[in-house]
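Structure tokens please, single chain.
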Amino acid sequence: MVSQSPVAASFEQRRDLMALSRSRDRGEADRARAVQLTLSGWPSPRVAEAFGFREDTMRLWCSAFMKAGVQAL
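Here you go.
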């Protein structure tokens, strides 16, 4: 059984993630896209694989986003 991600975002946060996903800074853009995929229901292992980073890194970014919003990315 797959559990639902605890990551949630308001309309404004989703809008800000979309804007950040277009950043010239690839790291910022990738982090925003990764969180967007998580919000869309992708599990952390799948997102991590898609971006080529470790699953615990994905969880760190999601945790930072949940605590401090888009600015944390």
